[in-house]
Request: fold
Amino acid sequence: MDARMLDGNAVAGLLQEVFAVEITTAVGTCAGCGASEPVGAVHVFEGAGVALRCSHCDSALVKIVKDGSRVWVGFPGLRTLEVAV
Amino acid sequence: MSFVSRGFRGRRRDEADSARVPPGQYVTHDFPVLSAGPTPHTPLDRWDFSIAGEVDEPRRWTWEEFRALPSEEVTADIHCVTKWSKLNTAWEGVSIDTLLDGVDTSAEYVVQFSDGGYTTNLPLEDVTGGKAWIVFGYDGEPLEPEHGGPARMLVPHLYFWKSAKWVRGLRLQSQDEPGFWEVNGYHNYGDPWQEQRYWGD
Amino acid sequence: MAGAALLGRLTWQLASVVDVVPETSRVKTIVFDVPEWPGHRAGQHVDVRLTAEDGYQAQRSYSIASPPNRARIELTVEMLEDGEVSPYLTEELRPGDQVELRGPIGGYFVWEPSSGGPLLLVGGGSGIVPLMAMIRARAGAGSTVDTRLLFSSRGWDDVIYRDELAGLEGNGLRVVHTLTRSQPPGWTGYARRVDGAMLAEVAPPPADRPRAYVCGPTPFVEAVAEALVQLGHDPPSIRTERFGPTGG
Reply:
C-alpha cells in the first residue's frame, strides 16, 4: 500500500476538463484481468504524468500527460469504458 | 496568466545560478517522490539485473554480484519534467560503462525496464561514456524504495523520467522503442536544456 | 438525472473570500462567494489553483463542506506543516481576497438523501469534510435515514465540527468518535485506530447492505476499506476518497 496513492476522484477535474462529462461514475473494464470498477475507485499515481491503475491487478488502465494547452490521454489497459448518457 | 494570488509564494524556489538550472525549472530543497505505480518490494535474494537484447551474450548479476562490481560516487544535478531541479545530489552506483564492458553489440538504442512494468528509452550513446549509472546509494545511505531502491538508473543529463526507478535491466535494440511516458505525450529524447518536455517540443 | 445540468467543460472561476472561521487549532473553514456557482452534490470537491507573481502555480483539491442548499461554498482546510497550499489558505487568506477554483467535481463519492441508506460514514481527520456535507444535506432534507458516523481524530480538541455533530445527533444519526492520541479525563469512548472490531460494533451489519463512504489519509482509507471487506461488506458498496499521505 502506497501512502501517496489516490483514487479516481483525484483526476475527476482533469478528466472532466477533457471530456466534458463526469467520469468518476463511468465503469472501466480492465484489459489485463477483466475486472470492472467505477473510475472513481481506480488507483491513481502521480509520476511525471498520471497513471490510473486497476485496483485488482495494478495494470495501467489510463495514462494522462498535460502541458499548458494539450492533454494526452492513453487507454492502454482499458478494454471498455461504460458511460451513462 | 492573468490572476495572481495575493501573498502566495509557494515552496521555496531558489533563483539559483542560471547556468545550472535549465529553462522553466526551479530549484527545490526537498526530494519530491513521484511514481507511476505502486512501490515494488523485490527481496534482494530475488533481485537481479540483466543486459539483454541485441548483445552477443546476455549478462545477469545477482545483488551480491552487482554490489561486488566497482562502484563510484556521483554528484549530479537532476531535473524533473514537473519543473523541479535538485542540485548536487549525491549517489553511489555502478557505471553503465562497467556493466557494458566487453558487451558486443551493434544496437543503437536502450530500453530500461523496471519492476512494475515501467520502461523508458534512450540512445545507447546517452548511457555510455560516463553519462549513466545504476545507483544503489543516495546521500550516503541505501537508496530508499520510494526513491527507486534497491537500485535505479541515473542519467542526469536528461529529464529524470529517463532514469527508471526499480530498474531491473537494459534491453539493447537496433530499433528505438518509446517507453511508458514517451508513448503518451512526453518527449522521446528529453533534453532539459532544450526544454524537450512534450511531443513536438 | 441531477448531474446532467451541472456538466460540461470545467472552467476556472474567481471566488471571493467572505470569511475565514477557525474550527480547531489547525483547521479553518473558508467561506466563498462564487458568482457562477451551478450548485453541487454532497461529497463533491473543487480544485483550487494559486499563482505566484513569477507565474508558479500550485493546485490542490478540497472537498466542499457546505451542503447543496447554501448560497456560499465552504471549504474546510487543515493546515499541514510542510504544506504549500494549506498554509496559504488557512493563514494568509483574508476576506476580500480572491481564489481561482473550478467545480463542482466528482460523481462517485457523492450522496443525496434520495439515495437512501443505511449509511456508514467513516472519516479520519480532515476526511470528515465531504462526510459533513452529506450529514448537513441529510439534516437539511429532514432525512431520518439510519446513518452512523465513525470519526477518528487525534484528540478531543482536534475534532472538527465537534459541537455541530453533537447537535445533529438523533433522528437516526449516530456519531461515534475515536480519539487515537489523547483523550479527555473521564473518556469512555474508543481510544485507538479504527479496526475491524470497532467497525463491527458501529456499522450496520452487511446483511442490511449499507452504503459506506470512507475518507481520509490514504493509509486510513486502506485500513478501513480492507476491514469492511473482511467483515463481509460488498466491495462495490464501499466508496473511498483518499487524501494522500498526510490527508487534507
About this structure: Residues 82 and 96 of chain B are 26 Å apart (CA to CA). The longest helix of chain B spans residues 63-67. Residues 48-74+90-194 of chain B form a domain with the Sulfite Oxidase; Chain A, domain 2 fold (CATH 3.90.420.10).
